[in-house]
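Hi L.,

You mentioned the student needs an example of a multi-chain input paired with its predicted structure. This one should do, with 613 residues in total across all chains.
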Amino acid sequence: MELKRIDANTWEIPRHANMRVSAVIYASDKLLAGVKGDKTLLQAKNVACLQGIQRKAYVMPDAHQGYGFPIGGVAAFDLEEGVISPGGVGYDINCGVRLLKTDYTERDISDKRKLLLAEIFKEVPAGVGKGGTTRLSRRVLEEVCAKGAEWAVANGYGTKQDLQRTEENGRMQEADPSFLSQRALERGVPQLGTLGAGNHFLEIQKVSEIFEQDVAEVFGIHSIDQVMVMIHCGSRGLGHQVASDYIRLMENKFGIRGLPDRELINAPIRSKLGNSYYKSMSAAVNFAFANRQMIAHWVRQVFQKVIGSSEGMDQVYDVCHNVAKFEDHTIEGRIKKVCIHRKGATRSFGPGRREIPEIYREVGQPVLIPGSMGTASYILVGTSKAEELSFGSTAHGAGRVMSRHEAKRRFRGEKIKEELEQKGIELRSTSWRGVAEEASQAYKDVDEVVRISHEAGIGQLVAKVVPVGVMKG
Amino acid sequence: MFNYKFFHHTADAKFQAFGQTLEETFSHAALAVASLMWDWKKIAKNIDIPLIVEGKDLEQLLVNFLEEILYLLDTRNFLLGLAENVSLEKKDGTWSLHALFRGDVNEGEYEIYGDVKAITYNEIIINDREPFMVQVVADI
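Structure written out for the whole complex:
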């Protein structure tokens, strides 16, 4: 496959064969070498063949092979001609990140760090097959899926300000839980208010570097060593079931003939099935918003209990990493509403966009990019340039380079805990093997990923945070 | 002879399962999926769950069958220890599968070390003639 270099960090797969548009990849030579080792580029090409795709198919700096769409894939579709694809969103619908600031510095919590983490570990259910403390009726679950974080706030979890500082204000208005299958609801019932497992985590962090002081101030980040809390989780089994349900329904309705990859199954946005997928996916998005809202509330309660106060623990922002939604973008010089798919990508809107909270509208939205376990995470700011270059999107994380199987073979959880402790990082987990699978050596270098985002102009560096306490599912 | 084996796959778990028959191959695939989350050899066979799933082709049947493991984990905390009596049938263009899942409900006594989000169609292969083999990628 021909790959044309556009500039230092931009590559293009020119339109050929059945491609309707070209595909653009944002990557350094180093990141590109990794991407070439798997099927990312082929998958980007396949996405560029889908009906109604607009402008270009985009691939973010942390991309790797996914199903149908690559992880780190961004594509927008015409509302009349275009399609919507569960494979363009992923199985973990609204897997995302929430960041809370505190007014504490590392010194303020240093002797209570262990206790803080232990209490959080007690309050926030985590691990596979681990149910939540709040077992819901089906009726309440449907309300959660209709109202998202709004439901959580109305029920005493957090504040209205949290909602203003959440993508979509914590609620996709189009959600309709009546389209969820019985199985999706059944899987959701025990899982609201749980962190889950895999790459999901909750970290107590400290600011280690500030790149853009003025913007950092607007985000509530004032000083080095300031304590932050990052929550990374999604819609759990409910979201996974929505994806599986609609892949099956779309296959049965439209067939798989002519698809280069079965996971690229899709439905016209305007079709009945396309519409019901969108409404179900939105319901799963809301479940995830409510999930993170509840977890954030429990974290504040723990700070209150252990440190004496949770005052100043404002939410910086909450972003989706796996989602499809309708947004206005400039296509061939005209502003047009399109259905954007971000799969393993973060929205990165610059100044002025009405979708972002008023307090951030002058600088651009916060973009939250978690690293791997025990390594740095980053806060970036969205740019106007990103709207031109990637439909207002950038990277979402580090991206794996080693299979879990291989990581499990090479590393031991207990050893990792020791090593982290030597670096001053506490670790709690439900499983040592789970820790081994998430070893940071199994991931790409997140520093390189955010550097390329910054240099390409699709998300600019604001601050770097490092963990002091890590809780893994 | 291994019943299943895993391959290097960056972000996910890719495996092949084998058997003397396609039915046995399917049951080994179920154990491969379980092995991503818990040690199925250590699960007591206290509970039997009969299973019927359908699919419009063998691939969909296999995906639906393996998805049952995730569904039963999330909704009943059921950990699969063995998949027995697998039978396959094609009728009026639809495949159906009967099986017996044997295992235990986890009250916290078993270690669960991994999460499987979904069973995917990515790189799925079903070799329904000798030598029987299925290849599956799980999203983890």
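You could point out the following to them. The first helix of chain A runs from residue 29 to 36. The domain at 4-79+94-401+443-472 of chain A is CATH 3.90.1860.10 (tRNA-splicing ligase RtcB).

Best wishes,
N.
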